Amino acid sequence: MSMPEVAEKTASLEEVMAQIGQDARAAAKVLAQAPTAQKNDALKAMAADIRAHVPEIMGANASDLTRARASGVAAAFIDRLTLTPERIEAIAKGLDDIAALPDPVGEAMANWQRPNGLDITRVRTPIGVIGIIYESRPNVTADAGALSMKSGNAAILRGGSDSIASSLAITECLARGLEKAGLPAASIQLVPVTDRAAVGMMLAGLGGTIDLIIPRGGKSLVSRVQNEARVPVFSHLEGINHVYVDKAARPDMAVDLVVNAKMRRTGICGAAETILIDRAGADAHLRPIIAALAERGCEIRGDAEVMAADARVKAASEEDWSTEYLDAIVSMKLVDGVDEAIRHIARYGSQHTESIVTEDAAAAERFLQEVDSAIVLHNASTQFADGGEFGMGAEIGIATGKLHARGPVGLEQLTTFKYVVRGSGQTRP
């Protein structure tokens, strides 16, 4: 579908969105009863169709990139938007990986018998229709749609206007894969217009057809969703992630982990944004870490002690401690041990992902137990904050709330449950 076709309105936006909701609800009923083999066939067919249409997807992405560059967006944004043959293959592989995962639908989570003979089972069931609102990353189109479908849910996707052509090209592949497996193409739908009013309609629930909203994007998007949604929300807030380098950290490991956590991919939500270094270990750790980051082109903004260690360090402002850069920029501060590190994270963090580097088992356990974030790591990079790296297949995002889902949102997190009670004529006295 070309951009003029996307922009053309043959019906009112209200009519378009209402039809999307109704089609999704009908598809969800089919998906809830679809056997695992049929869903897996659809995923494999989707992956094959994406591999067969790499030139078309690349062409659509090129038009998105042309518009993005013309608008003067940051390099980190361009990186998130860019598709390469390798990244498209990763999208296809992600679909194959989801097909290989166990199907959570129908799983018996618990079973017990009552003294009166009632047999009670808690069983996983789909949520229904999930609305996913996201920005710039075209791969989310496939990840979110596939995870929703495998878990028995229909998906209504509203991607960023910057990636509309790429997302449409990918969605067409998904639709063909669904139809090849005998499932409704409406199981995964992309809102085909860039009008922001469509987001408001989704947040209002599309006439009761949407059961859950998942936002994946910047702070302004998530704030809007939280403020306006009339249906439940899985929040995916900023990744203001920290690496704390303890005095008992191995210097070589500390450098490797900090550099990887910050610089492997700066534009993902698992990238480290603040480095905290134990003042008692600064002589061993501070300068090597600064040097390693600076040599890789990272701008460092530090407190007075960090600035004194290297002339390349710029002064950090109060705002830096609560900024998600998504770029080759990091804030750095010396702290008095694990206690101050935990306090700093509690004050400035977003409850996403934090890591401690140390050989002190007691310090590590304190950090892991007391830091209240969705993901906490010991001697590992924050860039492992990813459902695929957790063995969950692709993910829709990292939920930073505390209800129902927290951390990577994969197949299990996209299900709810019901109680199935089997009796033999029991009546309640």
Summarize the structure.
The protein has 429 residues and is an alpha/beta fold.
- The CATH architecture category of the largest domain equals 3-Layer(aba) Sandwich
Average pLDDT reading: 93
Low-confidence stretches: 1-9
Q: Main β-sheet, in a few words?
A: 7 strands, parallel
**CATH top level of the largest domain?**
Alpha Beta
CATH topology label of the largest domain: Aldehyde Dehydrogenase, Chain A, domain 1
Radius of gyration: 23 Å
Helical content band: 40-55%
Give the domain tally.
Answer: 2
The dominant shape is globular
At the fourth level of CATH, the homologous superfamily of the largest domain is Aldehyde Dehydrogenase, Chain A, domain 1
How many runs of DSSP E, i.e. beta strands? 16
Share in β-strands? 15-25%
Give the distance, in angstroms, between the N- and C-terminal Cα atoms: 63 Å
Tell me the strand order in the biggest sheet: 10-9-11-8-7-12-13
Supply the helix-strand structural class.
Answer: alpha/beta
How many separate helices?
Answer: 15
